[in-house]
């Protein structure tokens, strides 16, 4: 009769003991002397042979020996291996409550031996109640090298792994008859068991903070504050987004900095007491964000004043107002506002609009198939007397629209960033004329002013024929070029590659400023001429001014930073050269901090002395030891708390010649 395969479970134990270090071993029972000779545990404890069947183990019994072996009966003539009986398969563990009701099964026949399971004891007594439901339903065999009795010592920490053996009873007799090993016909099947955590009474590891993440901070101002700020600025762009792009700072950090600044918090306060809100930024970085924020606010105020001025003059239109409110920098605002300034001559676009050609320009872009330029010709009117003048006026209006379009300006700036834009300086024509005059009148005496002018020309000999990429030019070179230009010795220009012009023209004609319907060839020619005129007459000068402004601003900031670094080094120079100095930071409660510096400003020793307590004499001896050890003859006392008391202590020690033979002064 075929029986279904039964599964028994054994436990592989890794014993980590300070005295013995044994390998992994299987605890099993043997059925005969031949099997016991196959595998013997190391130094097993002798037990009296038992002829009677073992009594069934009770469910709560804990005093049974960890190792149970079935001894053979009295030797008989024929030795035949007994077929081992394995324990009945345990029911699947569904819940801990069901497992608590299961009692361990043992063999009733003492002569039959096999893989007899014994109950696994809890490793730690403190986990008995918590893991009782898990341990009662598991039948394992313990390692024979580890024996536990009722009076055993401290528990051994072990890492366990469960191994299941599937026994096919149909072929047990045939297989075990020819093989002596009691493990024949067993197939190992590894089951993953969750490792027990033996780190008791240890706090969990703290998670490190990630400074690059948002950390749960808001990425926008509260609705009330955002509404108030939006009304104050009244611009078409988002303040938080613009500030984040200009400063390369996370959006949530910009939100927190703006909130703190609007609450009148100072930069030192934010750096020291609001580190988490500003992402642990240093004072210089926070100050840079503050400066950019103030520049944006000043730009918004300037835009409001410009709009009010244009409204009073009666030249403000809805389109012009939107263009002004879309400006993101002072250069863009000046570029849009410059044609409307008082005292400036009337631009070509404004003259064409005054003639009424703005409607023709709009029709050229929207409905070119219905536009007839001959209808706009007025022979007796200047600017409209011929078809060519009408087409030129439409080109000027379109060129002005292209030059003031934000999307177009953004695209041309992107093209320039990806190209090799250079700045070039050369000698001005006026300086060359003066130099020629100097050569022609060499025999005559020149006045003092002329001699100074010639000396200034010689100072800029490095920049007579100078060319450099705008991304690689040094700050001092920018300042030198600007100074030479202000003295009318140098002429400076920004060179933009021709590839930028061709790409820009193609993009405008085919994408941004493409007619919505079919247009005739003469109308497409007008648009092409308008794009080229806009780039040459309006956009290229705007790019030149923008690059020069950025380079000058960066050079001025770097010059101030260089001055700060040089001044810092000068202020930190040792006040007295050639001698060892002791610096004292006075204090009452926390003592006076000492630092002994070498003649080369190297720190030799640091310490703390308590000169204003009852142990003043002991601290004075400590001071004398340090002064004599390092041959220190100068003492520098800070002007903080307890400075006068510390000064009196040193004066008293010097008057009593405590530091003899050194001549100490402070």
From TrEMBL:
One of its GO terms (biological process) is translation. Pfam families: Tex_central_region, Tex_N, Tex_YqgF. Residues 579-666 form the YqgF/RNase H-like domain. Residues 1-157, 433-452 are annotated as: Disordered. Residues 49-59 have a biased composition (Low complexity). InterPro entries: Ribos_protein_bS1-like, RNaseH-like_sf, Tex-like_central_region, Tex-like_dom_sf, Tex-like_HTH_dom_sf, Tex-like_N, Tex_YqgF, YqgF/RNaseH-like_dom. One of its GO terms (molecular function) is mRNA binding. It comes from the Eukaryota. Residues 121-150 have a biased composition (Basic and acidic residues). This is YqgF/RNase H-like domain-containing protein.
